[in-house]
Amino acid sequence: MPRLFVALDLPDGLADEFAALRDDAPDAPSLSFTDPTDAHVTVKFLGDTPEDELDDLLDALERAVADADVGSFPVEVGGLGAFPSEEYIRVVWTGVREGADELTRLHEAVERETTALGFDPEEHEFTPHLTVARMSDARGKDAVQRFLRGNDPDVGWFEATELRLKASELSSEGPTYRTVAWFEV
């Protein structure tokens, strides 16, 4: 039973710029960084999905992309933030400065189609972002807070042309992702 999510991948051409965020971050022992080649904007997390539901899911995602009707669009990535807040940091992220409206439309369409299939609705407001690092505990929190408040990096621009249905396999070394299907936007 694959663990699935719908995402917009960061193109390989911006991996170095994304990696620079890690290079500029403080040396906090509780931070674990995202592999730049795996960086993505999660549009919808689906979770464990039975194989026999995959065809219906693929049809639903085709409909969602068609309903959103965004076409290809420019995406600018930059800035820094934290979830759930700067006071209690679990995730350090860089945001989507340009293209957030289109990603939100895609998210809303995917949300409608997938909840109609029985997938759980999102519990939080959609914030287009790419995870830079996860923070496992409060060690180094002050340094991370200073980093968040004192930096406004530009990661770069790219043209969004497709959404991907991805599978995530968890291991002790971290997640491994593979693309299951592509959907031209």
Secondary structure layout:
Elements: E1 3-9, H1 15-24, E2 31-33, E3 40-48, H2 54-68, E4 73-84, E5 89-98, H3 100-116, E6 129-135, H4 141-150, E7 154-160, E8 162-169, E9 176-184
Antiparallel strand pairs: 1-3, 1-8, 2-6, 4-5, 4-7, 5-6, 8-9
Helix pairs in contact: 2-3
3D architecture notes:
By secondary structure, the chain is α+β, with helices and mostly antiparallel strands. The protein has one domain (3-184): Alpha-Beta Complex (Cyclic Phosphodiesterase, Chain: A), CATH 3.90.1140.10. 28% of the residues lie in helices and 39% in strands. The chain has helices spanning 15-24, 54-68, 100-116, 141-150, and strands at 3-9, 31-33, 40-48, 73-84, 89-98, 129-135, 154-160, 162-169, 176-184. A five-stranded antiparallel beta sheet has the order 2-6-5-4-7, with helices on both faces. It has a four-stranded antiparallel beta sheet with strand order 3-1-8-9, covered by helices on one side. α2 packs antiparallel against α3.
The counted number of beta strands is 9
Low-confidence stretches: none
Query: Please, what is the CATH homologous superfamily?
Result: Cyclic phosphodiesterase
State the shape.
globular
Termini, distance in Å?
Answer: 27 Å
Number of helices: 4
Number of structurally distinct domains: 1
Subunit arrangement of the protein: single chain
Instruction: Tell me the CATH topology.
Output: Cyclic Phosphodiesterase, Chain: A
Strand arrangement within the widest β-sheet reads 2-6-5-4-7
* Class of secondary structure makeup: alpha+beta
| Share of helical residues | 25-40%
What is the CATH-assigned architecture? Alpha-Beta Complex
Any idea of the CATH class? Alpha Beta
Measured on Cα atoms, how large is the radius of gyration? Answer: 17 Å
User: How much β-strand is present in the residues?
Assistant: 35-45%
The largest sheet, given as strand count, sense and whether it forms a barrel, is:
5 strands, antiparallel
